[in-house]
Every structure is written in C-alpha cells, then in structure tokens.
Write a structure and sequence with these properties.
With 166 residues, the chain is an alpha/beta fold. It is built from 7 helices and 7 strands; from the N terminus they run βαααβαβαββββαα. The chain has a single domain, classed as Aconitase, domain 4, CATH 3.20.19. The chain has a 7-stranded mixed β-sheet with strand order 4-3-2-1-5-6-7. Helix 6 packs across helix 7.
C-alpha cells in the first residue's frame, strides 16, 4: 500500500483522544467519524481531507485507555488505512486486527514525518519512505494476521474459512 502520513509525535494517545466518550451515544460510524481525534487535533478531519492522509504515525502505547472498539473503527471510517506506532496497547492492537485495520510496530518513527509518502509491504516487512528515498525493516505480520487484515476483519476471515471447509 502507498499512503501519505499524518504524524502525532507523542506517546499514550488514548482511546478518549481518538474518539471522545461524549460522542459514544451512538454506534453510527459516520457520526463518530466527524469527531475523530478532535480533542487531540481539532483540525484532524480537515487536514486529513485536504492533504489526503491515509497513514497515521504515533509514539508508544497508541490506543491505551479503555477497551472501546470504536477507536479503531472510527479511524478506519475516516480513511486511515494503516497505523504505525512505536507500540500499541494490546486491546487496541487486537481490536484493529479484528476490523481489518493494519497496524505496524516500528522503532524508526523518527524517520517519518507528516506529509511523507510511504510504500508499505506488510508481507516483506518493509517501509519505503518515498519522500526521503529511504527504507527500513519492520516486524512482519504473522501470516494469519495478514489473512485477517486482507479479508477486512476477523468476521470475514472466519466466514471464508468456514465456507472453504464446507
């Protein structure tokens, strides 16, 4: 995949910053998407649309806090195609995989900046920064996680496996 980066160079971006609890009176992803990241960056949606950002980069412990599954759902709903962070809260990691949102743990986030265009090979575990003409290796996704993401989430993956075995 190829995409453009928006970066928040901070650790502990929690699920309340991703989607504030005050909006969780509905499960309507379109409504929730309008409020994505607004307590961290009030212009997140405006920037995302204007510059075409599809990759979010952040520091360590991304998605910490509550176990709310709306956090990765709302990021995917606004068009984020991949999240790269130094590390993820475990429940956020699992929730992202369950909905088919690829996430990458990366030790080189300092080599990535807002506006950079990246080419990511999940299979090879390589991120190419097309803006700086550099690349680096990251931990490859295990094949079963790659299949879940490829199937756009755990439910679709399970359906495919069940249909294949019937």
């Amino acid at each position: 995949m190829i995409g453009k980066v928006i970066k928040y160079d901070m650790k502990d971006i929690n699920t309340d910053l991703i989607i504030p609890a005050r909006y969780l009176t509905t499960s309507d992803s379109e409504y929730l998407a309008k409020h994505c990241m607004e307590d961290l960056d009030a212009k997140f949606i405006e920037k995302k649309i204007k510059y075409g950002y599809t990759i979010l980069v952040a520091g360590s412990n991304f998605g910490c806090g509550s176990s709310r599954e709306q956090a990765p759902i709302v990021l995917k709903s606004v068009g984020i195609k991949c999240i790269i962070a130094y590390s993820f809260a475990r429940i956020f990691f699992r929730n992202a995989i369950n909905i088919g949102l690829p996430i990458i743990e990366c030790n080189n986030i300092e080599a990535i900046n807002t506006g950079d265009e990246l080419e990511i090979s999940f299979t090879e575990g390589i991120i190419k920064n097309l803006s700086t003409n550099s690349d680096f290796s990251v931990k490859k996704m295990p094949s079963f996680i790659e299949e879940i993401v490829s199937d756009d989430g755990l439910i679709n993956y399970a359906r495919r496996i069940i249909l294949k075995n019937t």
